[in-house]
């Protein structure tokens, strides 16, 4: 289960990184007269790109941070923090895997795995916030009648990748935390009335040559 959680979290980190870099957070909608246009526009967190009918592709970086809207600045910060925390959580979780030799004893590994899973859950939450906020802004702008049809956009593929990555990080972190909550098996408590029989049964009988004196008359 820990290895499965580690793989899910690794896929979540890869997806969060890809969605952060992709310029297709919102794409131009094909509505009305915009269907016959010869270009297709995409906007991302770091650049705006345009596809031309000739097959040319051009992108423009967003250099000014203060000129960006609040939801876009929040999306940038949250996605970068999500990638950093996911990478840190994977490094910590690798020390808590039971199949590895590093990381200390069983108790230390248990605490390390839970800490790594906590980082992964926080990273998934930070990945979910910008995806939800960005999608909400795009849908509200699309439904606004004051916005012309040529300036309306739809959520792009990068938003879908961000949602899936957030889910993978959530699931991976939750499995990593719950895989180490099992109690260790200790000595069984003997009831007062059968204490002698229970305790005698729990003792190892390695010496087969010993016989109980009660078997002889």
From TrEMBL:
It is a multi-pass membrane protein. InterPro entries: Claudin (IPR006187), Claudin_CS (IPR017974), PMP22/EMP/MP20/Claudin (IPR004031). The chain crosses the membrane at residues 79-100, 112-135, 155-177. The keyword Transmembrane helix applies. It comes from the Eukaryota. It is found in: Cell junction, Tight junction; Cell membrane. Residues 1-19 form the signal peptide. It holds the Pfam family PMP22_Claudin. Its main location: other. Keywords: Cell junction, Cell membrane, Membrane, Signal, Tight junction, Transmembrane, Transmembrane helix. Claudins function as major constituents of the tight junction complexes that regulate the permeability of epithelia. Belongs to the claudin family. This is Claudin. The gene is Cldn20_0.
């Amino acid at each position: 289960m820990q290895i499965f959680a580690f793989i899910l979290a690794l896929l979540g980190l890869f997806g969060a990184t890809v969605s952060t870099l992709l310029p297709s957070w919102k794409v131009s909608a094909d509505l009305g007269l915009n269907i016959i246009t010869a270009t297709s526009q995409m906007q991302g967190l770091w650049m705006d790109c345009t596809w031309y009918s000739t097959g040319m592709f051009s992108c423009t970086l967003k250099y000014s941070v203060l000129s960006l809207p609040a939801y876009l600045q929040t999306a940038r910060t949250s996605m970068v923090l999500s990638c950093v925390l996911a990478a840190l959580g994977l490094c910590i979780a690798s020390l808590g895997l039971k199949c590895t030799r590093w990381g200390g004893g069983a108790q230390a590994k248990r605490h390390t795995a839970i800490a790594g899973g906590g980082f992964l859950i926080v990273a998934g939450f930070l990945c979910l916030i910008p995806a939800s906020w960005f999608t909400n802004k795009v849908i509200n702008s699309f439904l606004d009648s004051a916005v012309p049809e040529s300036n309306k956009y739809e959520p792009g593929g990068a938003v879908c990748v961000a949602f899936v990555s957030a889910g993978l990080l959530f699931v991976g972190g939750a499995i990593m935390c719950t895989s180490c909550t099992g109690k260790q098996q200790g000595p069984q408590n003997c009831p007062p009335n059968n204490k002698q029989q229970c305790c005698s049964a729990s003792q190892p009988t390695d010496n087969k040559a010993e016989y109980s004196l009660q078997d002889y008359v």
